[in-house]
Amino acid sequence: MEIVIQPTHADAAVVAARVIEDLLRRKPNAVLGLATGGTPVGLYKELIRLHREAGLDFSGVTSFNLDEYVGIPSDHPASYHRFMHENLFDHVNIPAANIHIPDGNTRDIPKFCADYEEKIRQAGGIDLQVLGIGHDGHIGFNESTSSLVSRTRIKTLTEETIAANQRFFKPGEAVPRHVITMGVGTIIEARTCVMLAFGAGKARAVAAMAEGPITAMCPASILQMHRQTMLVIDPPAAAQLTKTAYYNHVYSNKPDFQKLSAFPVV
After folding, report:
1. Which has the closest alpha carbon to 133: 123, 125, 143, 124?
2. 8 Å CB contact between 45 and 10
3. What is the pLDDT of residue 259?
4. What's the 3-state SS for the chain?
5. Could you identify which of 13, 23, 129, 151 might form a hypothetical disulfide with 190, taking C-beta atoms 3.0 to 4.6 angstroms apart as the criterion?
6. Which residues are catalytic?
7. Is residue 71 over pLDDT 70?
8. pLDDT at 266 over 60
9. What is the pLDDT of residues 206-230, one digit of tens each?
């Protein structure tokens, strides 16, 4: 795992965007795994800017989103379908047919989940997976104690996650208790993972996933065993790490080409 500490979350978003830009310029038909929530918004804004100002082409890209709530319409203000269109898809030239987001209103959830896994396989697997991290170390909606080899499935959210997501819903509106999410095993099959984490509220989870034991209590900790993971964070999110001086030394002494082109195309 490579840990990159940037002065601000905006700087971190630029670093992550440049990694994705480099991938798309070398592999225009790349498969991207995408995340939602407040954390990747800056990254998506930078990708939109690169599309508009630097000609970054998404016409060959295929995307798979991590998760979606069960039981709310796709046009609901808090749905991840709507989030992705408002924050990325409506502003770049990715074909609609290439966009895949879990269907929280499917009548047969187990079949849908199996089909979602098959579509990822048919696309050749995910080249780069964008990730955030929950306060308890969850990735996607794989809550603490999730199997580290799990596949796309329905999950029941913890009360902590429901409370954290209440801000995306109207006052008094119930947050769905169930979601469809890629599993931990699905996520770590991506060739590259780029995780973003910002703010002091994520510091404990960041330290646990990067420097703590590998455990289902912190599902993100499995990324310690991933072959190509970049963790891009700001100083508040890095506050509980014990080896920040080392991480800064490694990154500042990398060849310039590695800072922008982090990983090889497979």
Report:
1. 143
2. no
3. 61
4. CEEEECCCHHHHHHHHHHHHHHHHHHCCCCEEEECCCCCCHHHHHHHHHHHHHHCCCCCCCEEEECEEECCCCCCCCCCHHHHHHHHCHHHCCCCHHHEECCCCCCCCHHHHHHHHHHHHHHCCCCCEEEECCCCCCCECCECCCCCCCCCCEEEECCHHHHHHHHHHCCCCCCCCCEEEECCHHHHCCCCEEEEEECCHHHHHHHHHHHHCCCECCEHHHHHHHCCCEEEEECCCCCCCCCCHHHHHHHHHCCCHHHHHCCCCCC
5. 129
6. 67, 136, 138, 143
7. yes
8. no
9. 999 999 999 999 999 999 999 999 9
Domain ranges of the chain: 2-260
**Cβ atoms 72, 175 nearer than 8 A:** no
CATH of 2-260, one of 3.40.50.150, 3.40.50.720, 3.40.50.1360, 3.30.450.20: 3.40.50.1360
Q: Could you tell me which of 61, 97, 60, 100 has the C-alpha nearest to residue 81?
A: 100
Phi, psi of 78 (to 5 degrees): -100, 0
Q: How wide is the angle at C-alpha 59 spanned by C-alphas 192 and 100, nearest 5°?
A: 60
Report how far residue 153's alpha carbon sits from residue 251's, in angstroms, rounded to the nearest whole number.
Answer: 37
pLDDT at 262 over 70: no
pTM of the model: 0.94
